[in-house]
Design a protein that fits this description.
- The chain is mostly helical and 123 residues long.
- The protein contains six helices and two strands, in the order αααααββα.
- A hairpin with a 2-residue loop joins strand 1 and strand 2 (96-101).
């Protein structure tokens, strides 16, 4: 498959454009995973849930409901979306499910959480 360059500028660097296209193509899965994570974290409640899981390591839905002053069913809907995206995992202890962040997701999230904390210190 030949990559076609449509840029009509006389000084367009075709090699640069092809290198950029190649780099993006080789990183498709990383972009897809990061986009999915950012999409989930783009909701304020889900971002707070992720923040709390990062801070406390694991919490159950009723803990999250109490902290966020929401109903357990509402929290469960958010948890389901986060879990379906593969960002958190569950551990059962008797009747209770505890949720925690997947290790693969923590680097990006910690950068986001650090920026949230920095804003709070400034205010």
């Amino acid at each position: 498959m030949k990559l076609e360059i449509t840029c009509t500028r006389a000084e367009a660097n075709h090699k640069q454009l092809l290198n950029c296209m190649s780099a993006l193509n080789s990183m498709d899965i990383s972009f897809e995973n990061t986009s999915k994570l950012l999409s989930i974290a783009g909701n304020e409640v889900r971002l707070k849930i992720l923040f709390l899981l990062n801070m406390e390591n694991e919490l159950c839905p009723c803990d999250l409901a109490d902290i966020l002053k929401m109903s357990v069913p509402a929290i469960s809907q958010h948890i389901r979306k986060i879990k379906d995206a593969g960002i958190i995992t569950a551990r059962r202890d008797g009747q209770t499910l505890y949720y925690s962040l997947n290790e693969d997701e923590t680097d990006i999230l910690k950068s986001i959480f650090k920026s949230i904390k920095l804003e709070r210190k400034i205010a």
